[in-house]
From TrEMBL:
Enzyme class: oxidoreductase
Alphabetical list of PANTHER family matching this protein: 3-OXOACYL-[ACYL-CARRIER-PROTEIN] REDUCTASE FABG, SHORT-CHAIN DEHYDROGENASES/REDUCTASES FAMILY MEMBER
Segments forming domain Ketoreductase: 11-195
Coiled-coil residues: none
Record has Oxidoreductase as a keyword: yes
Keyword Transport annotated: no
Designated name of the protein: SDR family NAD(P)-dependent oxidoreductase
InterPro entries in alphabetical order: KR_dom (IPR057326), NAD(P)-bd_dom_sf (IPR036291), SDR_fam (IPR002347)
Pfam family, one: adh_short_C2
Source organism of this protein record: Halosimplex aquaticum
Keywords, sorted A to Z: Oxidoreductase
């Protein structure tokens, strides 16, 4: 099978949630493609049980340039500061709004504060990233690209997923509305919709690690077990994916090869959405 070597040299890419999982692999791939990468995450070092080495070191080892800016994406001011920081490198060309958390509970057990927390990170964070990048690109009069991390949950409901699916549905619509509004300014907005990817997902936010335990966690015996083994048969390809199988989609959507792709949700899900 062939591989694609993208060239993002002279471009500055911000990846939110670039310390682990999908975001880390995306940051790494942009770095390998020559971009200056800014990892905007709440934590610089991966957790001990993470699958990865620190993002920026890996990028530097690959010959790229990387910077870490501690950022809580639920705070629009902090997101604005990251975009501002990118000016030091010529300004943001590609904004990847990827940071997100996973929570599940049966609807009747869903806590309103937890609901707000998921929305603050997964929805307000993506809104803030789109808005800050768009404002900056418009101010500078440059073209650019925004790629959000949606999910199969953007369009497909799952038991116990009120919070998460609602948040990812919103990401899909933010992507579409932003694409409409920015199209005439040559700023394209798209989203990658990953399926079930092997990451430390669910444990990404240090504030909630303790309470979350081991990630894909469901206490309610009536709900399906989402912790890996039982979920794989539900995927047409019969397996989860690794983050490196998803990362290329983020480079494609921001590349010139995708110059007429706009407002699109690109599924990378082993065929899950067919079902
Ligand atoms: P992950 O937990 O490995 O990575 C998430 C990263 O986001 C972590 O580095 C974490 O520190 C960071 N983060 C969390 N809250 C943050 C905040 N408030 N501000 C800044 N950074 C924050 O998880 P992942 O699986 O790589 O998830 C990345 C994205 O992919 C998420 O948006 C998630 O919803 C989405 N996604 C994941 C899967 C999957 O199966 N893993 C499937 C579909 C979509």
């Amino acid at each position: 099978m062939g591989t694609v070597n993208y060239d993002f040299s002279d471009e500055t890419v911000i990846v939110t949630g670039g310390t682990s999982g999908i975001g880390r692999e995306v940051a790494l791939r942009y770095g390998e493609a020559g971009a200056t990468v800014i990892n905007a995450d709440m934590r610089e070092e991966p957790k001990e049980d993470d699958l990865s080495a620190p993002t920026h070191k890996a990028i530097e080892d690959a010959g790229g340039e990387a910077t870490y800016v501690e950022t809580d994406v639920s705070d629009p001011e902090q997101v604005g500061s990251v975009v501002e920081a990118a000016r030091e490198f010529g300004g943001v060309d590609v904004m990847v709004n990827n940071a997100g958390i996973y929570r599940d509970a049966a609807l009747t057990e869903t806590d309103a504060d937890e609901f707000d927390q998921v929305m603050a990170i997964n929805v307000r964070g993506v809104f803030a990233g789109c808005r800050a990048a768009a404002r900056d690109m418009l101010d500078r009069g440059v073209e650019g690209s925004i790629v959000n991390t949606a999910s199969i949950s953007s369009e497909y409901a799952q038991l116990g997923h009120t919070m998460y699916d609602a948040s990812k549905g919103a990401v899909m619509m933010i992507t579409r509305v932003a694409a409409l509004e920015l199209a005439r300014h040559d700023i394209r907005v798209n989203a990658v919709a990953p399926g079930i990817i092997r990451t430390t997902f669910g444990q990404g936010n240090p504030d909630v690690d303790e309470e979350l335990g081991d990630g894909f966690l469901l206490d309610d015996a009536d709900l399906p077990d989402l912790r890996g083994q039982d979920i794989e048969p539900t995927v047409p390809m019969g397996r989860m994916a690794t983050p490196d199988e998803v990362a290329g989609a983020y480079l494609f959507l921001a590349s010139d090869d995708a110059s007429y792709v706009n407002g699109h949700l690109l599924y990378v899900d082993g065929g899950y959405q067919i079902l």
